């Protein structure tokens, strides 16, 4: 999945001022390491106990979550010390 290219987004994506503000607010109030850990745990619990392995949307969901986890890892890695 990691090697899959984003064919729908071949050009630079400019964030609107409102989207940039909301994104920065989200990063500030939802620590990437905590959010990533909790989301991964929730996903694993869902897959183990809800029988979701057969869900048809799971491949797309896993790909999208992989991208989100990669973003969260970068956010955490680039976090500036206070």
Number of strands: 0
Structural class: mainly alpha
General form: globular
Q: What portion of the residues fall into strands of 2 or more residues?
A: under 5%
Q: Name the poorly predicted regions.
A: none
Order of helices and strands: HHH
Work out the radius of gyration: 15 Å
Cα-to-Cα separation, first versus last residue: 35 Å
Query: Count of DSSP helices?
Result: 3
Helix content: 55-70%
The main β sheet shows up as: none
Mean pLDDT across residues: 78
Task: Give the key terms.
single chain; about 80 residues; mainly alpha; about 60% helix
Architecture overview:
The structure is a single chain. The protein is mainly alpha-helical and 82 residues long. Helices cover 62% and strands 0% of the residues. The model has no long low-confidence stretch (mean pLDDT 78).
Nutshell version of this structure?
With 82 residues, the protein is mainly α. It is built from 3 helices and no strands. Helix 2 (32-49) runs antiparallel to helix 3 (58-77).
Indicate the topology.
Elements: H1 17-29, H2 32-49, H3 58-77
Helix pairs in contact: 2-3
